[in-house]
Amino acid sequence: MFVSASEDLGIKPEDLTEPPLAEKTTVLDAEGNPIAQFYEEYRETISLDQVAPIMKTAIISIEDFRFYEHGAIDIEGTIRALAKNFTSGGIAQGGSSITQQYVKQVLLNSATTKEEQEAALEASYGRKLRELRYAMAVEEKYTKDQILEKYLNIAYFGAHANGIEAAAKRFFGVKASELSLVQAATLAGAVQDPNATDPNLGKKQRAKLLSRRNVVLDRMAELKKITPEEAAAAKKKPLGYKGTPLPGGCEASPYPYFCMYVRNEILSNSDFGKTAKARSQYLNRGGLTIQTTLNPKMQKAAENAIKKHVFASDNPVASEALVQPGTGQIKAMAASRKYGNNKRKKEMSYNVVADAQHGGGVGFQAGSTFKTFTLITALKEGMKLNDGFSVGSGYRAPYYSTFKNCKGENIGDPTHTVTNDEGGGGFKSLKTGTWGSVNTFFMKLEEHVGLCDTIKTAKSLGIKRSDGLNLTEYETFTLGTNEMDPVTVANAYAAIGARGKYCAPMAITKITDRNGKVTNFKPKCKQALDPEVADAAADILSGVFTQGTMRSVGGIGRPAAGKTGTTDAQASAWFAGFTPDLAGAVSIGDSRGAQKYKLNGVTIGGRYYASVFGASIPGPIWKDTMLAALKGTPATDFTPVNSARFGGCGSGCAPVERTEPEGEEDGTLDDVDIADFG
């Protein structure tokens, strides 16, 4: 009857374009554990054998009880609908088969403009005829079971749940295979008008859904799919809607800052799509499985160390990133505050651990951690470990032309004095000047090796401002006046630990698409430094723990190197350090405005600090993190310094007699007073 009717009407099948359904993307840590989900539509596509038989029965009973008997169009249902429409003077009944409903959903999901969406929903015979042509082609292409499977996966049930699996979890907290009679009848009732019966919207909508569920139960009893007694018992049950929270989003992730980094890496990287829209669809609709670099053990180590020293309720916020030397893999990203928009709870609304490109903000001035780049430049240009200068307690550029930026412009300011706060003059070598973090020594050293060469060294190690602007090129560059983020600083120091091999920060190792196609991502590395120069820098920086500003904090029981950093008048404080196996950077500053709210006379982590230095809080956080993160990992030695090239006996020398004053709070040397250069 169907064939002859369609032939008489001159209706011919028309192929339906069926774009892939929007599916959620799952993010995994390095061990394969789910840590986040992204989606434009919350959907999990499943096969028909993963749907409870009672669910299939319920949906067919209420939507298309002759589904397995008719073709693309249910002639009896259509005649019934046409008769009703004729008497009502409009389109009152659709008479649509499940196949036609599937076609309608495909057209709606494929719509990219408001006009296309309206065309897919318009109440007209033209739309019905177009749907019928497509339905005929679908019936020729697929079996009935395949069509039912596709329909159940594409249908919208309300409460932001697309597809039967998502709906079962959202409504009742179970899988589609576990649905009971009452639950199945509820979901079968929801598809007719999911917005009007959306239980997430309130009591009125829940009452409508309950009424609709009972209609389904009565229909199932009428068709003898269940007994009248079963229907009556089921109708006495409450709705049972649980409203299981939707998974996904970085706010719901146990590692929100790392999650933000991954999300923004895809959204900002042309490797994942030529346009912003294409990248967004790839992430939120692609049904991807993204394997990442995050190490749960190391992440926990960073979180615990931060919690030990800084409270979430403190105004200053501490953040830390861990990076693997030789690969650039980000192993952990942690902060003292939760991610979110609740200002009362002091939640962070941006990625305080990363740069603006990855959801971060302006960052904090990196302070004396930048002295390392001047040190490396000096070693590159032939200075030996014990080479140095006699310096005073203050430094002024002798001429405007003393310092030139990389454009060749004179930017030296002979009217401005950089000081060591409380003295600390005398002869300083690369070793002792670094161990004591002597400001005047590093100004003199930068004058000697050249500002632009120092900037080029920093850039070769991936240094760029957190806010994405160009690095400021003033004479105080070596004192860390540029705002940084922990990922960037940790990664630069990781390159020293890898003997000069710089690798771009890396968060994603593998992406598997919805069809099982795997794309692997390898580190993007280059040899940024002569390995022997990196060895010499690591050797000097090792002495920071034994003879320098981290002396009171101590080492970690294995070869390690690093540098404290404190900005002018304690606007922020840092520690960046590394072993051959792991590097990390810790920053602390007040997110309300570091220059306005400085780290003087503050209580942090329940402890009062007259002034916060790099070794006061960031150094201990780094140490506690490394002890836990590297537990069970065999210690790796640094490559010994080439003494024939660089002279001296490196960090193994006996302590040099010191004249610099020790820090007030933690007994470490003062590496602070960076002149505020505007």
Provide structural commentary:
The protein has 22 helices and 23 strands. It is α+β, with helices and mostly antiparallel strands and 678 residues long. The strands form eight sheets. A five-stranded mixed sheet has the order 2-1-6-16-17. A five-stranded antiparallel sheet has the order 8-7-21-20-19, with helices on both faces. Strands 3-5-4 form a three-stranded mixed sheet, covered by helices on one side. Strand 7 (316-323) and strand 8 form a beta hairpin. Mean pLDDT is 89; it is low at 1-9, 82-94 and 654-678. This is Transglycosylase domain-containing protein. Residues 322-586 form the Penicillin-binding protein transpeptidase domain. Pfam families: Transgly (PF00912), Transpeptidase (PF00905).
The computed structural class is: alpha+beta
Number of helices: 22
- The rough form would be described as elongated
What share of the residues does DSSP label as strand, in percent? 5-15%
Strand order of the largest sheet: 2-1-6-16-17
Main sheet summary: 5 strands, mixed
Number of strands: 23
Helix content range: 25-40%
What is the CA-CA span between the terminal residues? 86 Å
| Low-confidence blocks of residues | 1-9, 82-94, 654-678
Domain Glycosyl transferase family: 32-220
Keywords: Carboxypeptidase, Glycosyltransferase, Hydrolase, Multifunctional enzyme, Protease, Transferase
Domain Penicillin-binding protein transpeptidase: 322-586
Protein name: Transglycosylase domain-containing protein
